[in-house]
Amino acid sequence: MAENPLIHDTDAGIERLLEIMRRLRDPDTGCPWDIEQDFATIAPYTIEEAYEVADAIERQAWDELKGELGDLLFQSVFHAQMAEEAGHFTFQDVVRTMADKMVARHPHVFGDESRDKSAEQQTRDWEAIKAAERAGKEQKGALDGVAANLPALLRAYKLQKRAARVGFDWPHAGHVLDKIAEEAAELAEARESMDADALEDEFGDLLFVIVNLGRHLGVEPEAALRRTNAKFTRRFNKIEERLAERGKTPEQSTLEEMDALWDEVKAEEHRANGKLPPLKAASDA
């Protein structure tokens, strides 16, 4: 098979990437691994790449972000190539659909509607347009269209937002706090019974209500938990470093020693962030 010069044209842009994908999937000359894949086997990689984009942003690793965005783009190209082979649609159809959607959802930018409105009003308009789109797809229920394979916390958040739009919501965060106390008590009761199904059920209820509290407070649960995961990782790494300075590993330490180091690291971070006054120097004491 003659080599397409487009593959080696570093200035060719998206057309080069599309050609590379076509070659990888060529049944005669392509890569055996790429040829064997289907939508179901590639989907987990797509999810993983999206999280790696989020991770690079969280760490402000801008050099890495370029590569991670490329990896995510390649996932779209991979799915579109498989769809074209099956006769479903092409990559250009994907681009056209997205462009049409953005134009339709921004009449205040691309149409004759005024841009002179608040972000809240624009959000309401966006949701109204999306509701009309769902109606066109014959999605009748308020919760229709919330993807089942979303991460559980994110899906809970989106389900609750959808339910709130039709009035199924607590009016104040205080009501949610009361519900958290109720669910925590039910979890404690389930713990007494040691019934695995009951424990999982009640634990899920508690998580669901905590997600609802985040929504009322304007906090996205996935973002909040990612932030806390990063904080825990950062602090625990520092505990390991300080134990190593003492010639120890965590396994060779005690919980009390690690707790003391945790408090030390936490206090240092708070001082660095201005949440605690700086320590006085010995000469100032």
UniProtKB/TrEMBL annotation:
Composition bias type Basic and acidic residues, residue spans: 263-272
A GO MF label: ATP diphosphatase activity
Protein origin, superkingdom: Bacteria
Domain called NTP pyrophosphohydrolase MazG-like: residue spans: 37-110, 177-237
Region of interest (Disordered), residue spans: 243-285
Keyword terms, alphabetized: Hydrolase
SUPFAM superfamilies registered for this protein in UniProt: all-alpha NTP pyrophosphatases
Protein name: Nucleoside triphosphate pyrophosphohydrolase
Organism of origin: Ruegeria marisrubri
Taxonomic lineage: Bacteria, Pseudomonadati, Pseudomonadota, Alphaproteobacteria, Rhodobacterales
